[in-house]
């Protein structure tokens, strides 16, 4: 059914709207006098608001829509079904690690004592939540093999910014901030942006034919003005940088540092530790690897872990354990706590602001604490063996998709895949079909599109990251959809070129949509 055939309802037509689409605006559904709540009779003297407020009183009504409760509930419930989400089906968006967010995380994050901990609560009354934060820090340090960490940054890109500020502060403490940062041509666009915001010139490193770093080119490019190399490992084409320790040595020999973009830790957790292979500073994306929700603008979290020599520069405040502190817990004074827990050692956690070399704050308070709780719940629920298993399953799933599609889609890099696989549209492009067309057609098969046209070093890229969340059955459905689309490209390319056919709107002008969005949709008369 094309969208023009769908029955269209507006405020003037007595037609039931399509159950999930063509929903009128609340303003269009409004009818005067309807109310969603009923107030008890007034038990205080009535006052005349207009007389009370004088000139501040609004002369016309606010013209808010007037509806009953059930109409509002149904309106928003119908709108909510327009979303494609990880809870509905596979979300193979490469580089984004759209894994399932286990419900146990949500349960733990809503525990009253954690969810309602106020950031202004004194340390002595916040020992529980501080223990949660401290434990997450220790888990992340063990996973990454690093020495110190800040949980403040609110997202991956914010973590890059923080990490490069650490690099800069350290070089400054050595007498020269240096001038440039090297970034491979396969990098995520946030890397050069972060380096530039920190005042560095970005120099691009060309990838070798296997998609990795060309060691000779690197040796030529690193000099006394190089502050750091920003490297994504595994790279955005899903390839592990097997020469990583040599890369670190080349940089260190010239006094430059190795920054690792750890957004792809889904392929490493429990298997290899950046701290063991020469990385000086890195960020993690809790909202990717550690299953806190992302997409839709929700809060993220991009902790930055570093080696001990960068620790003095970390953002303030840092969490410290004071061995001579009191014994205390929320809801109990320290004497009661002591009498009930005679064997507990006398320690307390608190925030230290007295850090003269710190780069300063990068965010209000301590970071997105709700995300810390979710990530810790995920880490503890899995345990070390479980986390290792998720990594192995993520890699297995990507390689399964690769093995089932490589006869139909061009594989630009033959190096073994890690957590994601990148094809190109070369064969389909010969029939006039681009990666974006295939992605749109995938919507008709009930899947969210993969990442289109990224990384830039692969022309017409199809970047697919299934994550460990998907079952064999779901992967087989995805593979069947991709194979069927490849067949359609041969037999009926027009069908693919004009997809999607099953959605409320089909192809949008993406440039106009970004520059001149029409936020009010009206049915055509
Ligand atoms: C997602 C991602 C980022 C940026 O993370 P945000 O949280 O979106 O800012 C950086 N680098 C890589 C490789 C990524 O996949």
Give a summary of the structure in a few sentences.
The chain has 525 residues and is of the alpha/beta class. The chain is 35% helix and 10% strand. β4, α10 (244-253) and β5 form a beta-alpha-beta unit.
In the CATH scheme, the class of the domain at 146-313 would be: Alpha Beta
**Could you please say which CATH topology of the domain at 146-313 applies here?**
Aspartate Aminotransferase, domain 2
Uncertain segments are 1-13
Task: Compute the number of strand runs.
Answer: 12
CATH architecture designation of the domain at 146-313: 3-Layer(aba) Sandwich
Radius of gyration: 27 Å
How many strands, what sense, and barrel or not for the largest sheet? 7 strands, mixed
Shape: globular
Task: Supply the number of helical segments.
Answer: 18
Residue share in β-strands: 5-15%
Q: What is the SS-derived class?
A: alpha/beta
How many angstroms separate the termini? 19 Å
Instruction: Give the mean pLDDT.
Output: 90
Helix content: 25-40%
What's the name of the CATH homologous superfamily of the domain at 146-313?
Answer: Type I PLP-dependent aspartate aminotransferase-like (Major domain)
Ligands in the model, by name, code or SMILES, are: pyridoxal-5'-phosphate
Pattern of helices and strands: HHHHHHEHEHEHEHEEHEEHEHEHHEEHHH
Placed side by side, the strands forming the largest sheet appear as 1-7-6-5-4-2-3
């Amino acid at each position: 059914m094309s969208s023009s055939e769908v029955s269209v309802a507006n405020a003037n037509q007595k037609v039931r709207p399509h159950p999930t689409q063509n929903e009128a605006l609340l303003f269009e559904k409004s009818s005067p006098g309807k109310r969603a709540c009923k107030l008890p009779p007034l038990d205080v003297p009535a006052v005349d608001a207009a007389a009370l407020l004088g000139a501040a009183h609004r002369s016309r009504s606010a013209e808010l829509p007037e509806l009953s409760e059930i109409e509002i509930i149904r309106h928003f419930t119908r709108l909510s079904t327009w979303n494609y989400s990880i809870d509905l089906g596979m979300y193979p968006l490469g580089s984004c690690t759209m894994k399932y967010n286990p419900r146990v995380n949500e349960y733990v994050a809503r525990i009253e004592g954690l969810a309602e901990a106020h950031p202004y609560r004194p340390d002595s009354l916040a020992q529980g939540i501080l223990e949660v934060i401290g434990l997450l820090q220790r888990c992340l340090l063990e996973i990454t093999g690093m020495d110190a960490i800040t949980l403040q940054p609110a997202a991956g890109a914010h973590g890059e910014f923080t990490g490069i500020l650490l690099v800069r502060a350290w070089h400054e403490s050595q007498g020269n901030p240096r001038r440039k940062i090297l970034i491979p041509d396969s990098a995520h666009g946030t890397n050069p942006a972060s380096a530039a915001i920190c005042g560095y010139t970005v120099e691009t490193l060309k990838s070798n034919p296997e998609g990795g770093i060309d060691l000779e080119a690197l040796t030529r490019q690193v000099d006394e003005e190089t502050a750091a190399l920003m490297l994504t490992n595994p790279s955005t084409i899903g390839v592990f940088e097997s020469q990583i320790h040599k890369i670190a040595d080349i940089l260190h020999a010239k006094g430059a540092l190795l920054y690792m973009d750890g957004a792809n830790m889904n392929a490493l957790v429990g298997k290899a530790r950046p701290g063991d292979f020469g990385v000086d500073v890195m960020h993690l994306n809790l909202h990717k690897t550690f299953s806190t929700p992302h997409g839709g603008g929700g809060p993220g979290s991009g902790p930055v872990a570093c080696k001990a020599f960068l620790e003095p520069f970390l953002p303030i405040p840092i969490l410290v354990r004071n061995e001579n502190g009191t014994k205390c817990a929320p809801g109990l004074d320290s004497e009661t706590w002591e009498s009930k827990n005679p064997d507990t050692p006398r320690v307390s956690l608190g925030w230290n602001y007295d850090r003269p070399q710190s780069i300063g704050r990068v965010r209000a308070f301590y970071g997105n604490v709700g995300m810390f709780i979710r990530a810790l719940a995920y880490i503890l629920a899995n345990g070390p063996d479980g986390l290792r298993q998720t990594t192995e399953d993520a890699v297995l799933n990507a390689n399964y998709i690769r093995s089932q599609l490589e006869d139909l889609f061009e594989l630009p890099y033959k190096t073994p895949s890690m957590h994601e696989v990148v094809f190109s549209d070369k064969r389909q492009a010969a029939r006039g079909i681009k990666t974006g067309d295939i992605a749109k057609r995938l919507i008709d098969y009930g899947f969210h599109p993969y990442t289109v046209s990224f990384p830039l070093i692969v022309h017409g890229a199809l970047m697919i990251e299934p994550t460990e969340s998907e079952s064999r059955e779901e992967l087989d459905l995805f593979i069947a959809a991709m194979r069927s689309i490849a067949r359609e490209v041969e037999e009926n390319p027009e069908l693919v070129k004009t997809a999607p056919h099953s959605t409320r709107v089909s192809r949008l002008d993406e440039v106009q949509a970004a520059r001149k969005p029409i936020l009010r949709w009206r049915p055509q008369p």
